[in-house]
Write a structure and sequence with these properties.
The chain is of the alpha/beta class and about 450 residues long. The chain has helices at about 5-15, 30-35, 60-65, 70-85, 95-110, 125-140, 160-165, 170-175, 200-220, 245-255, 280, 310, 335-350, 350-375, 405-415, 440-455; strands at about 40-45, 45-50, 55, 115-120, 150-155, 185, 225-230, 260-265, 290, 305-310, 375-385, 385-395, 400, 420, 425, 430. Strands 4-10-9-8-7-5-6 form a seven-stranded mixed sheet, with helices on both faces. The termini are far apart.
Length: about 450
């Protein structure tokens, strides 16, 4: 395509944004009225838009490009597999080699959690939906068929299939699609910045939330609860890092009542939180783990639900109820699995987990210093390379900016103009860059954000 043709095509693309495709989590009119940048290239931690603007990608795609852009190892693995076998299914009568290898690799790296079986899907929503179905089938196989309910938490996000939406802990995800699936119950999360009960120290807040959880379990009756699903660190809800004792306490509650603990590791899995798995970072072994995003570094769609040996043993039973009547056309897609094997190899070989931990700590330190300078920053929080900067109208009252307020978006636009792409969720900047981030990248990002807040003070 010559230059005039390229310009014409670029103008056509800009004009067509949002006119045919719905964009997730956006009002169609807003997409047309305020077209987002069209990203056409990526290299390392940088992305380039249609106008040639190069930016540091603080979104990491969408929490997922852990190994960074342009990794030839992943491209080569995908290319080889496309040439050898572009597709074959895992339904009865066949399999494919990359799916077998990746399932074995995932069980190997989750050996500390004693995971022994994997069921593949196409993403995180598939992974959580599979977890719910696996849990219900498990209880039927072991003779406790009344265990059908699931407990999740306010602020939690578990994907947008109907089961995941029903488990989500935010009105914005749920309201437009009600009525939702029965049997899903929301409880309180120990949110340190916006706690459900004011005036408590972190450990007292954990104790209060555990007591509320226990009350709900007692009300529902423990023998009707199939599982508790929780992110080790809440992601889309605002990077809500719980006190250190919270996740171990959840494990104890589950053990006391015979409930399955489902760890939604779609974001925290494969190193982002500074541990290879978020639940491992809290010293907890779940019964079921949900993975996606970082499994392929976002290069191709793939989700995985991992089942512990204790739970998987129930499928040793004979009879039709032990048949796994669940799966997808693209479960174990060979090209996606090839990408997954290559991406995991990079995470292990380059020790990106440790880098996320060390660079993330430096990032938090620099952002906390920025908070001291700009009163519009109400809170900075995170663990590893998943961080949130929350803006407030008044630091004393914590009054948030609302969706109709334009200030956070204006700051985000200034950052984009100056080479930094960050995800803005109402009043929060979500920072989840590739795990190859360096301190130099941190300094650049913090410098741009500082200049944006100085240029446009609130």
């Amino acid at each position: 395509m010559n230059k005039p043709d390229a310009i014409a095509d670029g103008n056509w693309l800009k004009n067509e944004i949002g006119r045919h495709a719905f964009h997730p989590m956006a009002h169609p009119k807003d997409t047309v009225a305020n077209p987002p940048p069209i990203i056409v290239g990526g290299d390392g931690v940088h992305i380039t838009d249609l106008d040639g603007r190069r930016m540091i990608d603080c979104q990491g795609g969408l929490w997922c490009v852990n190994a960074g852009y342009g990794r030839q190892e992943i491209v080569d693995a995908v290319t080889r597999q496309m040439a050898e076998l572009p597709y074959y299914n895992l339904f009865p009568g066949g399999s494919n080699a990359p799916a077998v290898r990746l399932a074995a690799k995932l069980c190997e790296i989750t050996g500390a959690e004693d995971m022994s079986r994997v069921l593949f899907g196409s993403g995180g929503s598939d992974a959580t939906e599979t977890a719910f179905k696996i849990a219900r089938q498990y209880w039927k196989l072991v003779g406790e068929a009344e265990r059908i309910k699931f407990i999740s938490f306010r602020g939690g996000y578990h994907g947008l299939h109907f089961g995941g939406t029903s488990a989500c802990g935010g009105d914005a995800w749920r309201r437009s699609y009600e009525p939702l699936v029965p049997g899903f119950i929301n409880c309180e999360w120990p949110n340190l910045y916006r706690p459900p009960i004011d005036g408590l120290e972190p450990e007292a807040l954990v104790e209060a939330c555990i007591k509320l959880l226990e009350r709900e379990i007692a009300f529902q009756s423990p023998d009707t609860i199939a599982g508790i699903i929780a992110e080790p660190i809440q992601g889309a809800g605002g990077v809500n890092v719980p006190p250190e004792s919270w996740y171990p306490r959840l494990r104890h509650v589950c053990d006391r009542h015979g409930i399955l603990l489902i760890a939604d590791e779609v974001i925290t899995g494969l190193g982002r939180s500074g541990a290879l798995f978020g639940s491992r970072g809290w010293g907890v072994k779940p019964d079921i783990m949900c993975l996606a995003k970082g499994v392929t570094s976002g290069y191709l769609p793939l989700g995985a639900t991992l089942i512990s040996r204790r739970v998987a043993d129930a499928w040793e039973a004979d009879g039709p109820r032990a048949v796994m009547m669940h799966g997808y056309t693209y479960s174990g897609h060979p090209v996606s699995c090839a990408a997954g094997l290559a991406a995991i190899d990079i995470v292990e070989r380059e020790n990106l987990t440790a880098n996320a931990r060390e660079v993330g700590a430096y990032f938090l330190e620099k952002l906390l210093a920025l908070k001291d300078k700009h009163r519009v920053i109400g809170d900075v929080r995170g663990k590893g390379l998943m961080i949130a900067v929350e803006l407030v109208k008044d630091r004393g009252t914590k009054e948030p900016f609302l969706p109709a307020d334009t200030y956070p978006g204006a700051i985000s636009d200034i950052c984009v103009e100056n080479g930094v792409m960050m995800r803005t969720i109402v009043n929060k900047f979500i920072i989840s860059p590739p795990l190859i981030f360096t301190r130099d990248h941190v300094d650049q990002v913090v410098g741009v954000l500082d200049r944006a807040l100085t240029r446009k003070p609130y």
